[in-house]
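Task 17 of the worksheet. Students: predict the tertiary structure of the chain below and write it out as structure tokens. Keep your answer in the requested format; marks are given for formatting as well as content.
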Amino acid sequence: MSCFKERNKNNLVTRNSMQRLKTPLSKSEIQKLKIGQEVFLSGKIFTARDQAHKRLVELIRKGKRLPVGLKGQIIYYCGPALTPKGRVIGSCGPTTSSRMDEWTPVLLKAGLKGMLGKGSRCREVIKAIKKYKAVYFLTYAGCGALLSQYVRKKRLAAYADLGPEAIYELEVKDFPLIVAIDSKGRSIYVQE
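Model answer:
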């Protein structure tokens, strides 16, 4: 059973009626998204936290090639727990997104189109999301074990020395999200 559901005319919730997205994200899909909208995401995403962000931005600033392609992609602010026997991935809940704010504008300029985490973002990140027509998603905090059920494959993509904070490529199916900041820079955290 999914975390997110949409109400139909009888006030019942159904999984099939939810908005569905696939990576890499297209410009037109991103522009249609609105704050508060609930979606299911399928496709490949990358996990990355503080140290991986720092390394990526250092490479960009030096004009060097990145170990992963960011164009049209989503970074999930997550450091997966150890993988239990017989499972694809361990618990994989979101990390506080503001920890990545320092590096986010540079990554958006480099082609990143989506971020996934928890919590609000600083003003500079919101401006960059609007400028580069990107999107910021939330997912359930405290539900890492549940979220792991939406991961079909996991592959180490870069920075193995960072352990759980390495960059992993995840293949997800119907991963539950909420649009927190849309491509127009509107945020669910800001009352207008």
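Marker's comment: The chain has one domain: 19-181. The radius of gyration is 16 Å.
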